[in-house]
Specification:
Layout: E1 25-35, E2 45-46, E3 50-51, E4 54-65, E5 70-74, H1 81-88, E6 98-106, E7 109-110, E8 118-121, H2 133-144, H3 149-162, H4 183-195, E9 201-205, H5 213-229, E10 233-237, H6 243-246, E11 251-256, E12 259-264, H7 269-275, H8 286-300, H9 307-313, H10 315-320, H11 337-354, H12 356-376, E13 390-391, H13 393-438, H14 444-473, H15 480-507, H16 511-527, H17 540-543, H18 550-563, E14 568-570, E15 575-577, H19 579-583, H20 589-617
The protein binds adenosine-5'-triphosphate (ATP).
């Protein structure tokens, strides 16, 4: 029988001059066990799955992937492929009940940060839809390379050439709404974003998922060329590859139930099947036969390509592996904080300008609310009863109720006009941010600050125009001081909405959940503001919500810009009535403005903190 090495199909392309270091990855005896919480019954042990109340996700898995080779990790669903690549790329975040043992080495050295020498391409192509392919790659180059502009541009051109993206380099990436590049081009753009910094190791999770077989082959062929030309270590998980794709693989690792059942060259697979007495149908590939055998064995128990056979015939070679290299130099890919801010703000700005939905919804929403509220409370301020004559309680309460209504809708629309677009777009952008942060493209702080610095002035500008127009429509006192105070309160309320949007966007792990629960969180803020429920009857543990409720303060703040010192005299006795006693509000005009500004700052700070916590909780 031939030795495995005779089956290595040597590359037909001559390697280029390698200015990149070569890194072999090697993992030994990796075991991942999750203890199930629900059961306290006595442990029963299954030889394959471990004890009933614990699940062995990877069971003593060893293997290696060499520089200049493509290593495919395969196996049926639930075999442990994703867990293995997550461990190799240090993206695995174990829960409290998870135990991990074993060793992972890069050139015989342990590593803590995979990003020091490697890059990871996730399964989903999370890209900014409003940028072109070239702009997307340029953004990655700006974030990852410390070279000057000319060098960064030439690197981007090189990647575009390597990944065969020239034809679509100036096309928008696109999404469901914006027509953009194809699925295969998106996948290559995602790969390009990671390749830009020339990582010696590239790990990809399902790089062919969602692609037709021809496009999948093109993508894999490009990866093969890069692997050979630049001596990269390329590892990926893959489901049911075609025979053409299989022939590109240098090594294959097949897992089943968390155990290795084959590891070696693709060419050796046929001989191995013969060795373990597995018949390979002449109409199918050895890989298909193995997968069919696994399926049949699941029902009948007649498994040929087993872990025990792997241990007998193949494991020794794997355990003997020792990289010829020793250690590696860490890549320094992080640019300065200011540079990150600069490029992130530019990208955000382009995104705003090119997002038809965002701009349309902001402008349409503001104009609609202005017309509607202006019509509903047209010149309400002019109905103020005289203060030097007696007025009927009915007329006064009608006026005061209308004023409260006008102030309420004005503040509520300020909150929602800031919150609405964020709830619509932040969940999409959030995943792009999480992906980019996970690959350490930039700092959380620079992303957060750039977002706030771009969104705050835009909200402030729109809100100033909105509140001046509404102020005129409501017929409020045309004095500069009153108008300024009204505008300050209005802007602070809008910024509270902005902060609340970011805060709720980061509060939950699931982006859809945060988008749908965002408006619901406003209900307690509204109900417990003290205006709609008697605070004395609200349980103490929740009554503190009133103090962080913008509703409590903007209702009084807006009202006081018109009625701060007003005293009315009631018919027939002339008894005095302060509107603030009528409303039951006694916080004071400037106090309301100051607290509203503080709440806006507080929601933004909480948003920043939760964003930081979110990146620790989720891997994208
Ligand atoms: N935290 C966990 N708790 C319990 N079971 C888990 C946990 N994480 C993973 N598993 C289980 O471990 C097994 C391996 O999961 P993994 O995602 O690595 O499989 P996979 O081979 O990538 O599957 P697929 O091809 O379907 O993505 C699955 O059965 C999965 O349900």
């Amino acid at each position: 029988m031939q030795s495995q090495d005779e089956y290595i199909s040597l590359p037909k392309v001559k390697p280029n001059k390698i200015d990149n270091q070569e890194i072999d990855l090697h993992w030994k005896n990796l075991t991942v066990t999750v203890r199930m919480e629900q059961s306290k019954r006595p442990k029963v042990t299954d030889p394959l799955l471990g004890s009933i109340d614990e699940k062995i996700i990877l069971n003593d898995v060893s293997g290696y992937a060499k520089a200049g080779q493509m290593t495919a990790i395969m196996g049926p669903s639930g075999a442990g492929k994703t867990t293995l690549v997550a461990l190799l790329s240090k993206r695995y975040k174990p829960g409290p009940n998870t135990t991990i043992s074993g060793e992972i080495l890069a050139n015989n050295s342990k590593y803590k940060r995979f990003n020091d020498f490697g890059a990871f391409v996730i399964q989903d192509d999370l890209l900014m839809a409003t940028l072109t392919v070239k702009e997307t790659l340029m953004f990655a180059a700006n974030m990852r390379l410390k070279d000057d502009l000319a060098q960064r541009m030439s690197r981007v051109d090189q990647i575009i050439k390597d990944l065969n993206l020239r034809g679509c380099q100036n096309t928008l990436v696109g999404d469901n709404i914006i027509k953009g590049i194809s699925g295969g081009e998106k996948k290559r753009t995602s790969i390009g974003m990671e390749l830009i910094s020339d990582p010696p190791v590239l790990i990809l999770d399902e790089p062919t998922s969602g692609l037709d077989s021809f496009t999948a082959f093109i993508c894999m062929n490009i990866l093969k060329k890069i692997t050979i030309n630049q001596k990269r270590t390329v590892i990926f998980t893959i489901h049911q590859p075609s025979i053409d794709i299989c022939q590109l693989f240098d090594r294959m690792i097949i897992l089943n139930n968390g155990q290795t059942i084959y590891q070696g060259n693709y060419g050796f697979l046929l001989d191995y099947c013969k060795q373990v007495n597995l018949n390979v149908d002449i109409h199918s590939t050895p890989l298909d036969s193995i997968m069919n055998n696994l399926n049949e064995a699941f029902n009948q128990g007649d498994n040929k390509v087993t872990h025990s056979n792997y241990k007998i015939y193949l494991e020794e070679d794997v355990l003997k592996f020792h990289s010829q290299y020793q250690g590696f130099d860490k890549r320094r890919t992080q640019t300065s904080f200011c540079q990150e801010m600069n490029f992130l703000m530019k990208r955000q700005f382009i995104n705003y300008v090119r997002s038809p939905n965002l701009l349309r919804s902001k402008i349409f929403g503001s104009v609609f609310m202005l017309l509607f509220l202006g019509w509903l409370f047209w010149q309400v301020g002019k109905d103020q009863p005289p203060q030097d004559e007696n007025v009927s309680i009915d007329d006064l309460s009608k006026y005061l109720n209308n004023m409260r209504g006008a102030c309420f809708v004005c503040g509520t629309s300020a909150i929602f006009s800031a919150l609405g677009p964020l709830l619509m777009l932040f969940p999409i952008e959030r995943n792009i941010f999480l992906k980019e942060e996970n690959s350490k493209m930039y700092r959380v702080s620079s992303y957060f600050l750039s977002k706030v610095l771009l969104e705050v002035p835009m909200n402030v500008f729109i809100q100033i125009l909105f509140s001046i127009a509404l102020y005129a429509a409501f017929g409020f006192i045309w004095e500069l001081e009153n108008l300024i105070l009204f505008t300050v309160i209005s802007v602070s309320v809008s910024l509270s909405g902005n902060g609340l949007g970011i805060f709720t966007g980061c509060l939950f792990k699931d982006a859809k959940q945060s988008a749908s629960l965002g408006p619901i969180l406003l209900i307690p803020l509204q109900v417990f503001s003290g205006q709609y429920a008697n605070l004395a009857s609200i349980p103490k543990f929740i009554s503190w919500v009133q103090y962080i409720s913008p509703f409590k303060y903007f209702l009084e703040g807006f009202g006081r810009t018109q009625l701060n010192d007003a005293i009315f005299h009631l018919d027939p006795t002339g008894v005095e009535l302060s509107p603030w006693n009528y409303y039951g509000m006694h916080f004071g005009m400037w106090n309301c403005a100051i607290v509203l500004i503080s709440i806006a700052v507080m929601f933004h700070v909480f948003g920043g903190i939760f964003l930081k916590l979110l990146v620790n909780k989720i891997n994208v």
